[in-house]
Amino acid sequence: MTYVVMESCIRCKHTDCVEVCPVDCFHEGPNFLVIDPEECIDCSLCEPECPVDAIVADTDLPENQQHFLKLNEELSQSWPVITEIKPPLEDAEKWASVTDKLQFLERQSK
Question: I need a surface site. Which of 3, 13, 20, 21 has the fewest CB within 10 A?
Answer without folding.
Answer: 20
